[in-house]
Structures are given as C-alpha cells and as structure tokens.
Amino acid sequence: MQLINIIGASGHAKSIIDLIPDKNAIVGVYDDNLELTTLMGLSVTTPIPPIFPNKSPLVIAIGDNRVRCDFARQMHENHQFVTIIHDSAIISTSAQIGSGSVVMERVVLKVDSCVGDHVILNTASTIDHDCYIGDFVHIGPGCTLCGNVQIGEGTLVGAGSVILPNVKVGKWCTIGAGSVVIEDLEDGGKWIGNRAISKKMI
C-alpha cells in the first residue's frame, strides 16, 4: 500500500486508521489539538502544518463535512489525496469514486453510481444503481440509497436512513438518523423522520 498522511486525530480518524492493514504505510498523523500526542499507537504531530515534511498523499480524516471541505480546498493545489476502500466493500466495476473518499466495511456501491471527492460512505451503507453523491457528503452507517438518487455537496445522511428512488437531495442538507426521504429536498434543507407515516396519520 502507498504511504499516507492522515489529517485529523479524532474518532473518525481511528475508523480510517483501522481500515489500513499495514500501519507502516501511515507516515504521519496531524491534528490542531495541541494536547494530542498519540492515536492508536501512532505519534500525532500538532498543529497541522501548511506544508508536510513528505510528499505522500493525504486523507482528511475529519467527520465534519464543512471542516473536511475547508481543509480540502486549502490543500488541493499543493497536495494529492488518496482514496481508501475496505476489502469487504462491494464496488461495481462501472462505479466511480473520487479522490480523498473513504469507503468503510461492507459498503455496497452498485452499477453506474458516481461518488465525488472527500466523501464518507460509512459502515454497511448501500448505494443502488445510477446514484450520484456530491463532494464532501457523509452517508451514515446502515443507510440505503435506492436507485437514481442524487445527493448534493456537503449533505449529511444520518445513520439508518432510507432515500427512495429518484429523489434529489440538495447541497448541504441534513437528514436525521432513521429518516425515510420520500421527496426532493432543496439546498440547505432538513429532513427528520418519515413524513409518509406522518401524513397518513393526519
């Protein structure tokens, strides 16, 4: 495996480090928290430097979509990014995954789907055929995106949510955990729960 620099030393960074079978491939872990010294047995360098002491590519191990976006845009001109995919993930040969993205254990990414840059596909999420996932999106653990779903840049899809076929979710939206999204959502929108059940009860 190629050598990697890890940006961030939080819980999400631990999840990413755990995906890497050869920890010797991690040449640096960096964080702005000056109180951090080690993470999972690896030394943490603080603060994050503007220029890294080696030319190895980066992965931004920060769960917050906006913070991850800010770091990526600051660093994109001078650094390369690596995509990390766990061996247990099932990825269609026709699917595309952008740079700096992370695909966790047991993710399924189906035919002709496209995933942008610096995306998190978290544990056991399922993305069906012809889906589009924009840059800096986080698809939470156990989510299901049915066919032809579109997710705009920076959106958070909470754990265990389901998005029905052909639904378009805008940029920088928040979908609460366990939600069922049945219709399009505009940029910056929020969706919590199952509105289909709510409407039926009224």
TrEMBL record:
Query: Which Pfam families does the record associate with it?
Result: Hexapep (PF00132), PglD_N (PF17836)
The residue ranges of the PglD N-terminal domain are 4-74
Domain of life according to the entry = Bacteria
Record InterPro entries: AcTrfase_PglD-like, Hexapep, PglD_N, Trans_hexapeptide_repeat, Trimer_LpxA-like_sf
Q: Which family does it belong to?
A: Belongs to the transferase hexapeptide repeat family.
Q: What is this protein called?
A: Acetyltransferase
What organism does this protein naturally occur in? Answer: Belliella kenyensis
